[in-house]
Amino acid sequence: MMTKKKLNSYADVLLWGLGTARGKRYRKGDIVLVRYDLPALELAEVIQGKLLDMGLNPVIRQTMSPEMEHNFYTKADTKQLTFEVPGERVLYRHLNGGIYLLAPASLTHLKDVDPRKIGKALVARKSLRDILQAKEEKQEYGWTLCLFPTEELAKQAGMDLREYTRQVIRACYLDKRDPVSGWKEIYEKATAIKKWLNSLKIKSLRIESQNIDLTIWPGKKRRWVGISGHNIPSFEIFISPDWRGTEGVYYADQPSYRSGNLVQGVRLSFRGGKVIKAKAEKGENFLKKQLAMDQGAKRVGEFSLTDRRFSRINRFMANTLYDENYGGKFGNCHLALGASYSDTYDGDPRRLTKKRKEALGFNDSALHWDLVNTEDKRVTAFLADGSKAVIYESGIFKY
After folding, report:
1. H-run or E-run covering 161
2. For a 10 Å CB count at each end of the chain, is N or C smaller?
3. What's the average model confidence in pLDDT over 235-260?
4. Higher pLDDT, 352 or 332
């Protein structure tokens, strides 16, 4: 459904994202992993060619089909679930970049799979993700990802493929003459907002909407980050707060597809930084099993806000990458259960040891699940000098 010109523009934007996310120039001979779902093959081919033109070494990996993935989680025993491919760890230690092309042919094929088996496999692969995180903290690794439209995504979002593709093109600014310049402009505007947020001495934040009344602590040695090239599209500005300061109620009005399950109307009650009560209008059993994945799964790893002036996404897209960047009438906020992001540490990330993370309230988990709220909301910052200021209202940063 995408023309060759649009595929070429999409690849250029992803390569801009890859370079921006790393923050350090790639050198000839660097290794970039390109992982793609089969429906995104055409885009993967264009990206491979451009990486070769840059003198880089692309490693191409196709993901499992829905049938393969279902086979894996239903037939694999514990040893097979936690099996590590020989050489995988060596590859991860040598990677300099990663591009991930999401193009799911099914969103519900794992609905009959025990979520604990999926959790076990995720926990087993966490050490590989830790390798990449450590390299990223040293600016030795950068990554980006995107979504390629499929019939399944369109169906679950209530659109035909042509309309869904138009939404993707519009969201990624691929309808512009020079999409990369458009992203550079957004990047510059977001940088000014982040600088303003980071200049505020915020002790706590209160988020209020029709169904939310939540307090979080940004925490010590934190900085707001986002629109960094990691996700295409991405319009969110976020922080990994001190999980210990989370109190109150959070509600996700956007549905969420995760591991083949649809979860809707999630309501979480926090006390002492942990979820003490979890309800969902749909998928509650799956939600509770995800929260039991490990010790950190009931804690907050991220709080994010999207400014509707940047985002052109105004429909449910049945994919977290898009739904967490929803613009619409009131923008959105999302709360992520599970792992925090070390790039929100305001200091030398190489000194952010495991012990230091624990002391500062950075959460650790195999889970990272973004739950999105699109209601009209107000976010009030309570400052160190005793004053307060509304920093976000009606979908706009009050910068």
Report:
1. helix 161-171
2. C
3. 96
4. 332
- What does the pLDDT look like over 103-135, one tens digit per residue? 999 999 998 999 889 989 999 999 999 999 899
Strand order in the sheet with 202-208: 274-279, 266-271, 242-252, 213-217, 202-208, 378-383, 388-393, 396-397
Spell out the domains of the chain, with CATH numbers in brackets: 4-178 (3.40.1830.10), 180-397 (no CATH)
Q: Please give, one letter per residue, the 3-state secondary structure of 31-96.
A: EEEEEECHHHHHHHHHHHHHHHHCCCEEEEEECCCHHHHHHHHHHCCHHHHCCCCCCHHHHHHHCC
Three-class HEC string of 210-265: CCCEEEEECCCCECCEECCCCEECCCEEEECCEEEEEEEEEEECCCEEECCEEEEC
Checking if the pLDDT of 349 tops 80, the result is no
Average pLDDT (45-62) is: 98
